[in-house]
Structure formats: C-alpha cells, structure tokens
Amino acid sequence: MVRFSGMAELSVALAQVPAPAPPFDRWPIHGYHPALGFCWFSRSGAALITQTHIKRADLSAAKVLADWIDRAVQHERAVWNASKGLLLLHDWRSLSGYDSNARTLVIERQRQRPNGYARRLCCVVEPTPLWRMALTVSDLTLALLGCPPAGLMRDMGRARSELRGEADPVAPNWLRDR
Question: pTM of the full predicted structure?
C-alpha cells in the first residue's frame, strides 16, 4: 500500500492516474494500479469489474488482477454466496496480448479459489485466436471449480448489460487499501 505524507503529495499522485474509459469513466475509482488499470466492486450486483490501460499483460499485471479477485472472493463471501457467485467483468480492450507466464499465474490462482466463486466471467477484448485459446484453457479450470465458461465479447454494451447496477459509491476497504 502506498501512503502519502500530505494532501499535496496525494493530489500529485491522483493527477497522474489516467481516466477510465467509457462506460466506467463516471464511476468513482475504487482501485487503481499502474501495472494493470482500474477495479470496481458492486455489492448489489455481486460484481468485480476491471479495466486495463496497458497494451500487454505481463506477470505484474496478472498478479494485480489475481490479487483483486482473491480479495473479493475472500472478503465478499456472503455477497457471492447469496448471488451464486461473482460476476467478473474484465474490460481488456486496451490489451493486444499477454505473456505466457501471466496466463499461467491467472490459471493457477483460479485453481486455488473455492468452488462456485464465479457465476459469470465476461471478457471484453478483440476475439483473436490468442484470446480464444487463453479463455478455452481458463474455461477448463473454471469448469473444475463449478463455474460457468467465460464469455468472450467484443461489445462493451453487451457486457455492461450483464451488470446489475453500478459500482458502490465508496470502495470496499479491502480494495481501497491496495
């Protein structure tokens, strides 16, 4: 966690954070990490939403993504149990690819999560053969965990319609403290 010694230092740091892309540009930012992008959580929708601003996902980006999901699974168990799992919506429109060790880490972390933690996984990205292959491997792991297959989507509007509501007005502590 990064701590700031004063308001001036905090203001400079916040000014360096890029703006999220639509349709999440009007939401309060819950989480941001320069290695990946943005993260939001909606308790009413039992949803974790991420949006990348990087071109290529490397191991550090994968760790940030996996940590956000792990923390939601750990700290929001009552929410995802009541909704029969989390909706994971990943806006990866900025990505043109990923490193193989990043994919390996994400799959390994999926295997460590409890059964049924996700009710739906939506990935908004250009559906290239690379992304289709990655999500096919992910689907096999998700199936072993009792989760439905990933939805690979090109259309953000369609993915956005999967959400029930918006991000919470205030970030949960487990996300804000990162």
Answer: 0.86
